[in-house]
């Protein structure tokens, strides 16, 4: 009975002990996860769980890195990877500058800041002003200047208010014409000069203003224009009449014969075929002076009378000077 009880008790204790150990082992086999789940709040179970979580996070990160790498590789945005890198699964990324240039779109022009904008505007304005200023300077140089004309006058007048013979000689040299050139007579006519060989300040300013000349160069460029007046019959007649008063002495009403021959040669020498014969007549004549009526009629005679004098009317209103010339010329031809 006791043995039975003992056996039974031992059996119970053994059974109980064995049962506890068996139950513990069975529980270990069935529910390791149960113990881990129960042990999250402490002990070794929490450390294991934390390690599992970190491992999973690391694997997820590696997977994402590989996805990014393959995407960049398709876009040709990565450098070549060596064999070791493939084996280790590491990624050698492109340099920051290369990646930036390849990935980022081209930079647009920077919109100038307000200060830069003002600077750019000022630069444009300065450029426009310089262009305008150079044009303005050029225009001012081309435009007539009374001040410049006055300074030009005193280059030849010196301290006087008149250009005399010495200044006139230098003036003719500067403009490139001889004092005896007919264009100088035309210039004097345009200046309305009163005395041959002299230009007063008033005459200079008035005449040069009408010609718009305030420098030697401008007057040189005007010489052909002055010569053109000789080709117009009306202007030529005005110049011819002006020459008499311009060349005569102011206290005389007539023109000295020698001066008359020179002025006639200047005006008619190249355009009147009979002038050489008329000049011979004057040299052998008794005339010492020529008055204004005779002077003006010589021009009319040269324009209207034929070279053979066939249309000359001895009873016409010609001065005696011309009657004597016709008679002298006919006698010369007969002899």
Mean pLDDT value: 77
**Helix-strand category:** mainly alpha
Major sheet summary line? 2 strands, antiparallel
- Specify the helix fraction band: 55-70%
Task: Tell me, briefly, the overall form.
Answer: rod-shaped
Strand content: under 5%
| Helical stretch tally | 17
Radius of gyration over C-alpha positions, nearest whole angstrom: 62 Å
In sequence order, what are the helices and strands, one letter per element? Answer: HHHHHHHEHHEHHHHEHHEHH
Poorly predicted sequence stretches spanning 5 or more consecutive residues: 1-44, 78-104
Oligomeric status: single chain
**How far from one another are the termini?**
210 Å
- Arrangement of strands in the largest sheet: 1-2
Would you count the extended β strands for me?
4
Write the topology of this structure.
Layout: H1 2-30, H2 32-38, H3 43-74, H4 83-88, H5 96-103, H6 114-142, H7 146-157, E1 162-163, H8 165-175, H9 182-191, E2 199-200, H10 201-211, H11 216-220, H12 223-228, H13 233-247, E3 255-256, H14 257-268, H15 275-284, E4 289-290, H16 292-304, H17 320-334
Antiparallel strand pairs: 1-2, 3-4
Helix pairs in contact: 1-2, 2-3, 7-10, 9-10, 13-14, 13-16
């Amino acid at each position: 009975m006791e043995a039975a009880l003992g056996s039974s008790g031992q059996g119970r204790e053994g059974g109980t002990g064995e049962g506890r150990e068996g139950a513990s082992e069975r529980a270990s086999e069935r529910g390791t996860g149960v113990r881990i789940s129960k042990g999250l709040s402490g002990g070794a179970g929490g450390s294991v769980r934390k390690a599992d979580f970190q491992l999973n996070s690391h694997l997820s990160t590696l997977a994402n890195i590989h996805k990014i790498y393959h995407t960049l590789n398709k876009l040709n945005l990565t450098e070549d990877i060596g064999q070791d890198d493939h084996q280790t699964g590491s990624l050698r990324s492109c340099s920051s500058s290369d990646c930036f240039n390849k990935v980022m779109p081209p930079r647009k022009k920077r919109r100038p800041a307000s200060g830069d904008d003002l600077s750019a505007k000022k630069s444009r304005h300065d450029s426009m002003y310089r262009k305008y200023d150079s044009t303005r300077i050029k225009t001012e140089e081309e435009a007539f200047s009374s001040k410049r004309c006055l300074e030009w006058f005193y280059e030849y007048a010196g301290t006087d208010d008149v250009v005399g013979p010495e200044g006139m000689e230098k003036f003719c040299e500067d403009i490139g014409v001889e004092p005896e050139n007919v264009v100088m007579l035309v210039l004097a006519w345009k200046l309305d000069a009163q005395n041959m060989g002299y230009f007063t300040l008033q005459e200079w300013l008035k005449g040069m203003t009408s010609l718009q000349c305030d420098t030697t160069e401008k007057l040189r460029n005007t010489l052909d224009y002055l010569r053109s007046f000789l080709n117009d019959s009306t202007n030529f007649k005005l110049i011819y009449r002006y020459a008499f008063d311009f060349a005569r002495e102011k206290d005389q009403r007539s023109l000295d014969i020698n001066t008359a021959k020179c002025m006639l040669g200047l005006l008619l020498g190249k355009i009147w075929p009979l002038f050489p014969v008329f000049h011979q007549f004057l040299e052998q004549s008794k005339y010492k002076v020529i008055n204004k009526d005779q002077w003006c009629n010589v021009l009319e005679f040269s324009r209207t009378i034929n070279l053979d004098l066939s249309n000359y009317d001895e009873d016409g209103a010609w001065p005696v000077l011309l009657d004597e010339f016709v008679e002298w010329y006919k006698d010369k031809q007969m002899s």
